[in-house]
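To the wet lab folks,

You asked to see what we're planning to order before we commit. Fair enough. Below is the target structure as tokens, and below that is the sequence we designed to fit it. If anything looks off to you, flag it before the synthesis order goes out.
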């Protein structure tokens, strides 16, 4: 008999333990993440009373795949456009919260005499609150739609992307073992270059491929393609010195801008759950009780630092960013835990070999403790605010910061000198950065691949000429926008008409843009040409002018930009929520869509029976059922499980509707009882039976007995489908389906 590999045996054991433990945690209404960690501890080498896995190396490899899938799905839920629409308020709050918690973690590490790397990584771990745990807590309390909850979720999204940045910075510091500002700035610039390049190229290419071959891509193929693209960028990111998690996140954020993002999320969810479970199980395997006993004091101190730090400094960060005191306290109290991202940062430090062995289990212990206290602290936010409300100064409670911000946002809508310059410079800077990044990528690819090939085929100088011509052709659609974009914008026209000084400044800006575009061409020509630099400069200016006034280059450039914009907006254009919902943005009334649960008690009931307008103060704008859409449904329209309902109401009405929808469902025990109520029996018809000589229609069988005759058994025991017009004869046996009570009454009546 062939012996099974240790990996299969270990995997079977892990999954059995994880399944049993998570069922218990589900019954206790605790996060599954904690269940996986406990299962890993039970299956790990540090638990002497249970069997242990034999091959930890393979399990660790699988856990790395779990990290990749977790970061990929996190990227699928992320959107750069969403960050831009958030404004400065959540960005300021996220930066302040993370800065405060990193400082607290570093100070706690210094207090215990830990190394610089341990302190840095500990600070990074404490700065990352758990998105999964907070989502679950908000759903359990029914506060997901409250204003403070949306602010918390916005900050969590920003913490995730800043966490990626933090991982890159920590990796760079771990490799160099230095903390010099120049090296850090260089690392950040390289990160920004690759992040922007991958996003631009990915958003331009991937949606085109998916659209072109959509007839050949079913769910299975889409899964293979998306996972393949994810691992491709993981390999590329690793080859240029970044973590695999960064590459997976970037590909997820790219795929999030496609029309198939929702299908990809659904198709990959099972893989993410499976490998993610293995990752969290591997986290639990690293928990050593001896280390926990030895480092009990740091665990207690770090736990108190996380809870008190988020409750005080976190709330203060939200207050400084412009929130009112009540929402600020609720937001700060909601972040009092660390979770999955902290584990990823911990595993990064361990894989790089720069953190001590005790850091990982200590952080896991802190995560478990803070997760346990999170629901109670969220509940404590309201009583705490009521207790301190009388001590809050009136200037703060009146939220002067928010009023000032609203006044400034209103002023932004008017065209004035300051706004014109700000908008113009922002647009010029954005286009310059985007197209210079693309030009740099083209030059890097040409000099590393095309130039050696041209020299090999045509010789050195002829190869340089051929390579130079090809390079200029590739660069021209990206050089032209650097020079032309925003030249004829409304802001530029306004400033030119304003007075002579601003007209002169605008022309200087246009000249500066031309110099930047010419420099790209000059750098290419000067690198390949043996001529004197002055001749190369003159040639560059002539070539740049030719690029600017060439109509073919103009058409290609416009086509590239339009394709990119269309790809970037394609996901918005196909979203479930209709465009009319965006017109209510920023107002008291809002539009939201809800999916009716499969175990709802509303199934088959009409809107008149449910009477949402009177009880929940909402309006139902539309009901989507599969490919059918019912606009402005009437009172006789029915609700069925799986329907997507578009609701118009204020925040309180939406929250009330969601709570009612989640409350009006059958529990598991009730659902099982409902499924087992029908039964089937055999009944013989006697001469005295009221059915003898009559049809089902004659006696109105269904209405009279609330049962259904499904067949008639002949003399040979064969069942035949009965007809409503057939007369029953004495001695025949019929099979009847119904509920137990009705069948009992039927036996007595027949």
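Sequence we intend to order:
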């Amino acid at each position: 008999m062939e012996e099974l590999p240790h990996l299969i045996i270990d995997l079977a054991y892990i999954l059995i333990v994880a399944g049993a433990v998570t069922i218990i945690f589900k019954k206790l209404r605790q996060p599954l993440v904690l269940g996986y960690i406990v299962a890993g501890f039970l299956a790990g080498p540090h638990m002497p009373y249970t069997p242990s896995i034999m091959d930890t190396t393979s399990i660790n490899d699988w856990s790395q795949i779990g990290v990749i899938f977790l970061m990929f799905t996190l990227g699928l839920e992320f959107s750069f456009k969403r960050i831009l629409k958030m404004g400065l308020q959540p960005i300021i709050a996220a930066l302040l919260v993370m800065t405060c918690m990193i400082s607290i973690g570093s100070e706690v590490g210094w207090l215990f005499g830990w190394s610089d790397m341990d302190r840095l990584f500990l600070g990074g771990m404490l700065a990352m609150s758990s998105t999964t745990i907070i989502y679950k807590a908000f759903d359990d309390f029914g506060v997901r739609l409250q204003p403070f909850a949306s602010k918390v979720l916005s900050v969590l999204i920003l913490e995730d992307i800043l966490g990626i940045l933090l991982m890159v910075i920590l990796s760079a510091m771990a490799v160099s073992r230095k903390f010099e500002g120049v090296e850090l700035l260089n690392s950040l610039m390289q990160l920004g270059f690759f992040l922007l390049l991958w996003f631009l190229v990915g958003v331009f290419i991937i949606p085109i491929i998916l659209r072109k071959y959509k007839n050949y891509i079913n769910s299975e193929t889409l899964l293979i393609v998306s996972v393949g693209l994810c691992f491709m960028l993981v390999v590329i990111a690793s080859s240029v010195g970044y973590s695999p998690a960064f590459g997976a996140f970037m590909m997820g954020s790219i795929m999030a801008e496609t029309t198939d993002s929702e299908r990809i999320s659904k198709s990959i969810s099972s893989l993410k759950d499976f490998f993610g479970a293995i990752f969290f199980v591997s986290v639990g395997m690293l928990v050593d009780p001896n280390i926990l006993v030895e480092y009990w004091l740091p665990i207690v101190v770090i736990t108190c630092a996380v809870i008190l730090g988020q409750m005080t400094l976190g709330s203060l960060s939200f207050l400084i960013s412009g929130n009112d005191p009540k929402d600020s306290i609720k937001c700060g109290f909601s972040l009092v835990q660390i979770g999955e991202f902290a584990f990823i940062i911990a595993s990064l430090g361990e894989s790089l070999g720069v953190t001590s062995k005790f850091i990982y289990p200590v952080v896991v212990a802190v995560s478990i403790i803070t997760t346990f206290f999170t629901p109670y602290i969220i509940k404590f936010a309201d009583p705490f605010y009521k207790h301190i409300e009388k001590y809050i100064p009136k200037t703060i409670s009146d939220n002067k910061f928010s009023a000032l911000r609203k006044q400034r946002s209103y002023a932004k809508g008017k065209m004035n000198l300051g706004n014109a310059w700000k908008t113009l410079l922002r647009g010029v800077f954005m286009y310059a950065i985007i197209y210079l990044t693309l030009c740099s990528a083209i030059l890097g690819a040409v000099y590393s691949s095309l130039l050696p090939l041209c020299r090999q085929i045509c010789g050195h100088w002829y190869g340089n000429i051929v390579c130079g011509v090809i390079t200029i052709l590739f660069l021209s659609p990206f050089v032209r926008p650097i020079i032309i974009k925003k030249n004829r914008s409304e802001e530029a026209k306004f400033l030119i008409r304003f007075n002579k000084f601003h007209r002169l400044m605008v022309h200087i800006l246009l000249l500066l843009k031309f110099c930047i575009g010419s420099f790209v061409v000059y750098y290419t020509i000067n690198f390949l040409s043996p001529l004197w630099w002055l001749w190369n400069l003159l040639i560059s200016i002539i070539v740049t002018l030719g690029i600017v006034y060439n109509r073919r280059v103009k058409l290609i450039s416009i086509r590239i930009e339009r394709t990119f914009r269309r790809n970037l907006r394609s996901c918005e254009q196909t979203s479930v929520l209709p465009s009319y919902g965006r017109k209510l943005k920023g107002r008291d009334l809002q539009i939201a869509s809800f999916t009716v649960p499969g175990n709802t008690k509303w199934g088959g009931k009409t809107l008149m029976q449910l009477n949402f307008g009177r009880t929940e103060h909402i309006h139902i704008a539309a009901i989507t059922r599969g490919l059918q859409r019912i606009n402005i449904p009437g009172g006789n329209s029915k609700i069925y499980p799986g329907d997507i309902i578009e609701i118009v109401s204020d925040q309180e009405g939406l929250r009330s509707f969601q709570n009612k929808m989640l409350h009006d469902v059958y529990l598991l025990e009730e659902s099982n009882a409902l499924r087992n109520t029908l039964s089937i029996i055999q009944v013989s018809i006697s001469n005295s039976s009221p059915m003898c000589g009559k049809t089902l229609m004659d006696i109105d069988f269904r209405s009279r007995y609330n049962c259904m005759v499904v067949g008639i058994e002949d003399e040979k025991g064969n069942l035949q489908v009965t007809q409503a017009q057939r007369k029953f004869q004495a001695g025949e046996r019929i099979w009847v389906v119904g509920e137990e009570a009705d069948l009992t009454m039927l036996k007595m009546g027949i």
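Structural context that might help your review: The beta strands are 590-595, 605-606, 619-625, 628-631, 638-639, 644-649, 678-684, 708-713, 719-720, 733-739. The domain at 579-672 is CATH 3.30.70.1450 (Alpha-Beta Plaits).

Thanks,
Computational group
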